[in-house]
Design goal:
Radius of gyration: 15 Å
Strand content: 15-25%
Largest sheet: 5 strands, antiparallel
Structural class: alpha+beta
Oligomer: single chain
Length: 164
C-alpha cells in the first residue's frame, strides 16, 4: 500500500462513521486556510447544497462564522439570534434537524464540521464519537499543504457515503 492509499484509506473510515451518525448529512471543512478548506466533504441532500450555494449562505452563515472564530461545540439553535439571513431556519426547512457544530485546530488551520440527524437529538455519546472522528481526520491530514497531487486527488475522491 502506498502512502497515498494509506492516507485516503485512513480518512475514509472516520468519514463513513460520520455518515452513519448523521443520517441527514454533515459538512466537514478540513484545514481551512484563508477561509478556504483544503478538503470539503458534504453529505447533505443536493437540494440543500444547491440552495446554500445559490444564496451565498457561506458569507452569512453563523455556524461557519462561529467555527472560524471559536473551537469546541455549539448547537445551531444557540446561534439563531445571530442569523439575520435565516440560514439556520432555511436549513431546518430543508430537513436538517438537530444541528450542531464542532471546530478544532488553530485559527490558521481550522477544521470544522456541522452535523445533522433526523429523530431525536444527538446523544452525548454520539457527539463525543463525532468529535473524536473529526479530531482523527484533522490529525491524519496534518501537514496537508505538503501532500502531493496524488494524495490530494485520493482524498478529494473519497465518498463519505460509500464507506471505506
Amino acid at each position: 500500500m502506498s502512502k497515498t492509499d494509506g492516507i485516503a484509506r485512513q480518512v475514509a473510515a472516520p468519514l463513513s462513521r460520520l455518515s452513519a451518525l448523521c443520517d441527514t448529512g454533515f459538512a466537514l471543512a478540513v484545514h481551512i486556510r484563508f477561509t478556504r478548506p483544503s478538503l470539503l466533504y458534504r453529505t447533505y441532500a443536493s437540494d440543500w447544497i444547491a440552495r446554500y450555494s445559490e444564496k451565498g449562505y457561506m458569507l452569512s452563515d453563523p455556524v461557519v462564522r462561529h467555527g472560524l472564530t471559536n473551537t469546541g461545540t455549539v448547537v445551531w439553535a444557540d446561534l439563531m439570534a445571530d442569523d439575520p439571513a435565516g440560514v439556520i431556519a432555511d436549513a431546518v426547512a430543508h430537513g436538517l434537524h438537530n444541528g450542531w457544530n464542532y471546530a478544532t485546530g488553530p485559527a490558521n488551520s481550522r477544521t470544522l464540521c456541522g452535523f445533522t440527524k433526523s429523530g431525536v437529538a444527538f446523544s452525548q455519546d454520539q457527539m463525543d464519537q463525532a468529535r473524536a472522528l473529526v479530531d482523527q481526520i484533522h490529525a491524519l491530514t496534518d501537514g496537508i499543504e505538503h501532500f502531493g497531487d496524488a494524495e490530494m486527488d485520493a482524498l478529494r475522491a473519497l465518498d463519505p457515503l460509500s464507506g471505506p
